[in-house]
Design goal:
alpha/beta; TIM Barrel; 2 domains; four-stranded antiparallel beta sheet; about 20% strand; globular; binds magnesium ion
């Protein structure tokens, strides 16, 4: 058994600007697990810099090689379900852990001939596609971008916001595109002192405002939820089924954005989903500029019953001129769920070779 760690670098078709940073490339760490059953793929969603959370790709690589793989090599686990337990002695680093679990789960499911969506309990054959639009240099540029995406068929638009870039762009998009399904994401850029600015978004009937306050401020989000009408969705704050339970109990959010990497893996993501479904809290699938490997896993996850809102599940071409897998394409505003076993897509060897920056084989 062994694991290949492969760093790939894909230029983005346009820079992606949020309240916390600007991305111009997707530098992904791919994991190919070779187990006694066969091989499988996972993607570490950490970016090149710690803008979204504390994790970043180079650090994830070190954590995987120095701490996580020795734990797997030590045994005490035999299935993907047991990987998280085997890694639990290492604190944090959910994206690094998720990448390993995903690759091992994919190997298991490919060997068994079971699609990931089926394994997770999915109920859909295709998922509605939403698009996240970064902060732009001007409102006019933003409106043009949104027009293009709506023309392509996207079912929902999300605008990145930050203090000073909120009401004006939201008003412009509402005015130009009427009752389009619209939501915003602050990536934690506001404080409770900005309550008036956030309440000013109420008249625009947004589906939700995502992560307005800091990651660790569940109480502040609960207070804010009582002062604004727009539903609050949490992203960065939800790091496990435990923090999801706390957020729901406190009234910190009424919607949850789910990303497998943020909660330590697909199996914990399913637990968060199940908890939200039991509490009638809608969930939707977030995005981390994934290549086709991570995108395939997200699409499979989004087939679960509780994913009642369109996710940040875009066509590959929204981010990349060339993806490392056959591209996901929009069909009537939806992405088809891969039908093959495991994640159902394979990296294209020639493209993978061309985009690889570095690779390393670790024998277990
Ligand atoms: Mg977000």
């Amino acid at each position: 058994m062994g694991v290949e760690l492969r760093e790939v670098k894909l230029p983005l078709v346009e820079a992606f600007v949020t309240s916390t940073g600007t991305e111009t490339d997707r530098e992904a760490l791919l994991v190919r697990a070779v187990t006694p059953l066969g091989e499988g793929w996972g993607e570490c969603v950490a970016g090149s810099a710690p803008h979204y959370s504390a994790e970043y790709a180079a650090e994830a690589r070190e954590v995987i090689t120095r701490f996580l793989l020795p734990r797997l090599a030590a045994g005490g686990w035999s299935t993907a379900e047991e990987v998280a337990g085997a890694l639990a002695g290492v604190k944090g680093h959910p994206m690094a852990k998720a990448a390993l679990e995903s690759a091992i789960l994919d190997a298991e499911l490919r060997a068994a001939g079971v699609p990931l969506a089926t394994h997770l309990g999915g109920v859909r054959r295709r998922v509605p596609a939403g698009v996240a639009v970064g902060i732009t240099a001007s409102v006019g540029e933003l409106v043009d971008l949104v027009e293009g995406y709506l023309g392509s068929g996207y079912r929902r638009v999300k605008l990145k916001i930050r203090p000073g870039w909120d009401v004006v762009p939201v008003a412009a998009v509402r005015e130009r595109f009427g009752d389009v399904a619209l939501q915003v994401d602050a990536n934690g850029a506001y404080t409770l002192a900005d309550t008036d600015a956030l309440a000013a978004l109420d008249p625009f009937e947004l589906l939700l405002v995502e992560q307005p306050l800091a990651d660790d401020d569940l109480v502040g989000h609960a207070q804010l939820a009582r002062r604004i009408r727009t539903p609050i969705c949490l992203d960065e704050s939800i790091t496990s089924s435990g923090s999801a339970a706390a957020a729901i109990a406190l009234g910190s959010c009424s919607v949850v954005n789910l990303k497998p990497g943020r909660v330590g893996g697909l199996l914990e993501a399913r637990r968060v989903h199940d908890l939200c479904l039991a509490h009638q809290v809608p969930v939707w699938c977030g995005g981390m500029l994934e290549t086709g490997v991570g995108r395939a896993a997200n699409v499979a996850l989004a087939t679960l019953a509780g994913f009642t809102l369109p996710g940040d599940l875009s066509a590959s071409e929204r981010y990349f001129a060339t993806d490392i897998t056959p591209p996901f394409v929009l069909d009537d505003g939806h992405l088809d769920v891969p039908r093959g076993p495991g994640i159902g897509v394979d990296p294209l060897p020639e493209v993978l070779r061309r985009l690889t920056v570095r690779s390393e084989w670790v024998r277990l």
